[in-house]
């Protein structure tokens, strides 16, 4: 399979689907001032939808291929023709996941007050600049996120009727959106948590990763792909969780780690962006648990004030290294990766299907943290 060709097709299809969703009657025949605003929103929708690795779409699409490989290796020519039609619908479903991802990121940037996304101004900042008004920019950002979330469900509904397990597909898609919202609430609640209970902080952070990240990054894409191919719903659910949950948590741990050890040219975000935002995750919990009293006091003070300077970011990263939090995070990632691998290898999928799955899940975790 040519992954690059798949990526190109997904990227083009996302652009087409997003444009089509804004061709609704409500967006036509508007007063000139309203029309200009709507055009700005549509253009930002297309801008915000560009870029990204499209890992969720690829995972869902290849999970579909893997399930098809397991279900049957011999199809008649007429069945193959129908399968090609179904795969086109599966591509749209995979794109729907990415559209929802964009919606979630737009809202996430507003909550975190992040000015950049994928190396360019985040949606609400772009709107704020156009209208020279933060309140209007934030309001339009919220509505764009809502529009894209609704759009993602429209896309899913249109293509699900051409796929197997239609009802389960739509329930899974809606449950995924709810899980992400629950995860976001939990994420916000951690900002108010007492930093003295480091074990609770670490456990709560991992729970957020399960609800907010793994739910729509790995679990749902795998489950949607398996269901769409016709895999038994219970088996699809069990495999999606056993393979996807540890993979998704490891993915978020790796993303947090990349925030402090990687070049911003590669991540599209400044080094220590999560630290500047005051994000309380496992790195902080592990550092608090293993630091000396002086560093522990500094971390608590830094994370309870409103803003952290560049000097704060540098010192906090140094403490993360010195306390062993960086190495502990790497170990967590490796352990979760191995758990996901074991679930895949012990699954009822065919050997060909396992190879298909392996080819995509390896893209979620940097190689140096898998071995």
UniProtKB/TrEMBL annotation:
Q: Which UniProt keywords apply?
A: Magnesium, Metal-binding, Transferase
**What protein is this chain from?**
Polyprenyl synthetase
According to its UniProt record, which cofactors does this protein need? Mg(2+)
Any one GO BP annotation for this protein = isoprenoid biosynthetic process
Q: Please give the organism.
A: Gardnerella vaginalis
Query: Is Magnesium included in the keywords of this UniProt record?
Result: yes
- Similarity section: Belongs to the FPP/GGPP synthase family.
Q: Which Gene3D superfamilies match?
A: Farnesyl Diphosphate Synthase
Q: Which PANTHER family match?
A: GERANYLGERANYL PYROPHOSPHATE SYNTHASE, SHORT CHAIN ISOPRENYL DIPHOSPHATE SYNTHASE
Report the Pfam families cross-referenced here: polyprenyl_synt (PF00348)
Question: Molecular function (GO) terms listed?
Answer: metal ion binding; prenyltransferase activity
Task: Tell me if ATP-binding is a UniProt keyword of this record.
Answer: no
């Amino acid at each position: 399979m040519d992954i690059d060709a798949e990526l190109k097709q997904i990227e083009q299809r996302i652009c087409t689907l997003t444009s089509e969703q804004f061709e609704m009657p409500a967006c036509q025949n508007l007063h000139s001032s309203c029309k200009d605003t709507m055009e700005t929103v549509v253009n930002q929708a297309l801008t915000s939808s560009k870029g990204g690795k499209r890992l969720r779409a690829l995972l869902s699409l290849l999970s579909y291929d893997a399930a098809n490989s397991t279900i049957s290796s011999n199809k008649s020519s007429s069945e193959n023709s129908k399968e090609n039609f179904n795969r086109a619908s599966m591509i749209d479903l995979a794109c729907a996941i990415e559209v929802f991802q964009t919606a979630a990121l737009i809202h996430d940037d507003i909550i975190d007050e992040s000015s950049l996304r994928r190396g360019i101004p985040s949606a609400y900042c772009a709107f704020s600049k156009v209208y020279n008004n933060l309140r209007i920019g934030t309001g339009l950002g919220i509505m764009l996120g809502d529009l894209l979330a609704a759009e993602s469900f429209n896309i899913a509904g249109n293509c699900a009727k051409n796929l197997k397990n239609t009802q389960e597909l739509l329930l899974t898609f809606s449950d995924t959106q709810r899980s992400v919202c629950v995860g976001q609430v939990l994420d916000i609640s951690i900002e108010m948590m007492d930093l003295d209970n480091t074990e609770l902080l670490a456990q709560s952070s991992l729970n957020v990763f399960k609800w907010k990240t793994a739910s729509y990054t790995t679990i749902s894409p795998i489950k949607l792909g398996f269901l769409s191919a016709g895999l038994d719903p219970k088996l699809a659910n069990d495999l999606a969780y056993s393979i996807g949950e540890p993979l998704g948590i490891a993915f978020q741990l790796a993303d947090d780690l990349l925030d402090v050890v990687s070049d911003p040219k590669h991540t599209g975000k400044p080094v220590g962006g999560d630290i500047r935002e005051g994000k309380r995750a496992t790195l902080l919990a592990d550092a608090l648990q293993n630091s000396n009293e002086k560093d522990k006091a500094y971390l608590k003070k830094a994370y309870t004030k409103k803003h952290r300077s560049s000097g704060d970011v540098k010192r906090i990263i140094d403490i993360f290294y010195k306390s062993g939090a960086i190495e502990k995070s790497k170990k967590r990632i490796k352990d979760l990766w191995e758990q996901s691998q074991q679930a895949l290898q012990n699954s009822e999928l065919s050997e060909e299907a396992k190879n298909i799955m392996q080819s995509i899940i390896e893209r979620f975790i940097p190689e140096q943290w898998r071995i």
